[in-house]
Amino acid sequence: MMPVPENKILRTATYVEKGGVGKTTTSAHVAVAAAREHDFDVLLIDLAGKQNDLSTHFGMGGEVEDVDAPISAIFGDDWDFIRDNIPDVVDRMVYNTGEEIDLIPADPGLGGADNNLANIPIEERFSKLDEFITQDLNKRYDFVLLDLPGKEDNIALNGLFAAGNVIAPLKPGAFERNQLENLRADLDDLREEHPIDPELTMVIPTMVKSSTNLSQEFVAEIQKAYPEQAAPVPVSNSQDISKKQNEGCTLFAVPEDELYNTGQRVLEAYRENTTELLNQLTKNHESRRSRKTSPEQ
Questions:
Q1: pLDDT digits (tens, 9 = 90+) for 81-122
Q2: Cβ contact 29:65 at 8 Å
Q3: CA-to-CA separations, 199 to 20, 53, 173, 202, in angstroms, rounded
Q4: Which residue in 32, 116, 191, 200 has the most C-beta neighbors within 10 A?
Q5: pLDDT per residue over 242-258, tens digit each?
Q6: Per the structure, how many domains does the chain have?
């Protein structure tokens, strides 16, 4: 097991303003890999909207249709009162996926919460999720992974503030390549406009077909343009991913001899990429902690 910084959860978020690139699949597999391969206590938080894709990915769609302790509550003015007067409220938010990790599902109230956040003073608006993780989850988990909306709204900005680290999954394509450049520019702009400091920590090429020039060129371009952030291993395109997702599980829940060769390569990619990601998150955390504790120059 890798060392976890004392009294501090490792955090990251999957974020890119583009659907269909493997964001939910990446979130699920990285989370399970961190638990299975590194013995981390892991929590996934789905902030991506009403569809509850992560819940579906783990076969929990019916179980979370009517949550009585929604994650959207933490963004409201009454959260402190709720937490202080309902001792088990955080326990009621959390669901066991059956794959060694926990999940807080998305709920329909997130849309309203996003609108309400616009009325909160700017100096308080983006710290709600960070405070929840720090105050309510710090003693429960080693690693929290946020699956963010594919748009820059107040919920996404809360996630970027709380995580500080961004994973960008992208499938091969000229549009997707351009989106990555836009993401890097957007993160730079956010640092200037808001009190948040997110950094692009890992870019993971997904749905890669090794037999096509498009995929090979895309991976090569990512590795050249982002040598420090490019994932060690691109994630292959595999029928196993969608098949098992429809069955309500990740590939880690399936005996490897039941997977195609491409599915086995996907598993190995997520193992290696997660190991590198956790190493990088630990380094980033230690660097930020050093900056905060260093005397002002």
A1: 999 999 899 999 999 999 999 999 999 999 999 999 999 998
A2: no
A3: 22, 25, 23, 9
A4: 32
A5: 999 999 999 999 999 99
A6: 1
